[in-house]
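Example record used in the benchmark description.
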Amino acid sequence: MAGMNANTESQAGSQANRPELPDHLSIDVRSPHHVAAVFEHDVGIRFNGKERHDVEEYCVSEGWIKVPAGKTLDRKGQPLMLKLKGQVEPFYR
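Model output (C-alpha cells):
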C-alpha cells in the first residue's frame, strides 16, 4: 500500500513539472506556435476520439489538426499538409 502512494505522489509531482498544453501547438521549430518546453514530455493528440500519431500542428479552439499528405513535398522540401477539422484533445502520455 505504501508503494502505491509513493508511485502516485511521483506521478503527481511529474505532472506538476509539465507546462500547460497550449491552444495552438506546432512541431516545426520555425513556427511561432512551437513551444520547446512542451516537447520535453511525450504529447499525444486525440482527434475525433481516436489517438493520432502523425499530427504536425493542432488548434483546439478552432478544432483542426494538420497532418502530412503522404510522401508529397512542397517546393521547399517540406511535407505537404492537410488540415482536418474535428474535435481535438491534446494530452500528456
